Amino acid sequence: xxxxxxRGSAPEPGVERSDAPVFAPGPxxxxxxELILNGAYPLPGFMTGDEAETVEKEGRLPDGRPWPVPVTLxxxxxxxxxxxLILTDPEGAPLAGLEASEHWRGADGRHRxxxxxxxxxxxxxxxxxxxxxxxxxxxxxxxxxxxxxPLLAVVTDRPLHHRALHQIRAEADAxxxxxxxxxxxxxxxxxxxxxxxxxxxxxxxxxxxxLPARTSFVVCTLPRSAxxxxxxxxxxxxxxxVALAAHVAAAYGATHMLSVTGGxxxxxxxxxxxxxxxxxxxxxxxxxxxxxxxxxxxTRVDPGEARSELTDEQVEAELAHGRELPxxxxxxxxxxxxxxxxxxxxxxxxTVLFTGLSGSGKSTIARGVCDGIxxxxxxxxxxxxxxxRRMLSSELTFSREHRELNIRRIGYVASExxxxxGVTVCAPIAPYDxxxxxxxxxxxxxxxxxxxxxxxxxxxxxxxxxKGLYAKARAGLIPAFTGISDPYEEPGDADLVVDxxxxxxxxxxxxxxxxxxxxxxxxxxxxxxxxxxxxx
Length: 536
Ligand SMILES: Nc1ncnc2c1ncn2[C@@H]1O[C@H](COP(=O)(O)OS(=O)(=O)O)[C@@H](OP(=O)(O)O)[C@H]1O
Ligand SMILES: Nc1ncnc2c1ncn2[C@@H]1O[C@H](COP(=O)(O)OP(=O)(O)O)[C@@H](O)[C@H]1O
Description:
alpha/beta; 17% strand; 3 domains; 6-stranded mixed β-sheet; 5-stranded parallel β-sheet; 17 helices; Rossmann fold; single chain; Sulfate adenylyltransferase; binds adenosine-5'-diphosphate; binds 3'-phosphate-adenosine-5'-phosphate sulfate
């Protein structure tokens, strides 16, 4: 949100300036802001261009302290000249005042503001807010009953299965032995999840009773840098991200850290090269012994009988088809929570997006597919291109900007239906990669996305010319007509391609239905055809 840029004298700390422009940072800016404000970062505010460059190149702040990632605030160009800025959460509630000390542009050309931030109001926005205490609150709580024991932090955005739980218990025991009395170290699980999206947080929390008695959990949102892919079941972290997590863990009072990123995480040497403020442990690998029926350190399992944990793809496939995760792999309560978060595809929200030229057959196929989905027993919402243009986007033109906005609106509605477990079928032209990718991202926050490219050649669409639009476009009566005088970017990420040339509409519908059944989103046979013993 951006308002007019007005300047004035410096405000008193913590006092809201009613005349300052307001701005809601994006997800990473907001994540950084909260970590600055709650004291998890030892930084007064957002970095200048020089500071960010030193961090980027040398992994340290200009004063020499190691620091792994630039902490920067991206702003729209119109805010680049402001001196004071009110930073708000996405709902517009003020969080902090920023005294801008520098406006700079990074190598990416984007505008950024540097400067100290002052807390205006403690954040109330964000999922699981009651589990987000500040580092000083956590440290104060521990000081009430000081145990003198090491505090082992586990930073994770993925559920803790048997392998990780064994590793945590073993490392907590080992730290207790090293530190004297043989009593286990305390454990602090830092659950990393988005501010808007619970992600896997509740599945991580489900493991609470399976961890040592003095284990506590906090939730926080770490910024997601470009080198961290965001899988549904948890991301793959880079060394600098683990190092940033180590800084946050140290602020919470941790003396050691274990990052439970699964097999593909960075090795500890690369993390320690970032000079984190605590020891990042390199846990012993564990395997399941299929003969003994136990998880054991790798060294104690015969290679022939050692089983690794399931991969993310295997977990996803089990959940997609509604199968229970095996008990050798994960505790029942973690499996049950995962099944709740990722229900079987027959119960999971789904958006099917048809894209293709005008006249390619999107509406015809989409209508048939909707009928089929209904027959299979699921309810479905159809967002046809023409209907959306009438009901949601009647003021929009066919400029690139308006087409993008149109598809974003479709994506928003579809993602809401998906969030609640419904099926949406959308059939706009959606000519641009970027817009389609945006819809995919919006939908995949909550469920599944299936892209169908109706790849009927332009000549065929033009010959059909059902609405006479191509003739008008050729005559220059319709400007910026897709395929004639406006681009159509062929998707490279379609889950299914249907070229309807020389194909009966029923056959096109059947292909899409087969793909949806094969993927597990619909039962193999719908009620009616199962009763009649007939095929679709
Ligand atoms: N300039 C131009 N380019 C393309 N299409 C045009 C244009 N002007 C009007 N129409 C009619 O609008 C329908 C496409 O609207 P969409 O909302 O699906 O397009 S977009 O996704 O926003 O690009 C499209 O409907 P379909 O034939 O169902 O695709 C056309 O009937
Ligand atoms: N295999 C097919 N699939 C879909 N439509 C087809 C097919 N074969 C011919 N058609 C015809 O092509 C036209 C496609 O129009 P429509 O579905 O409105 O396309 P769009 O929504 O992409 O503009 C319809 O008249 C339809 O009967």
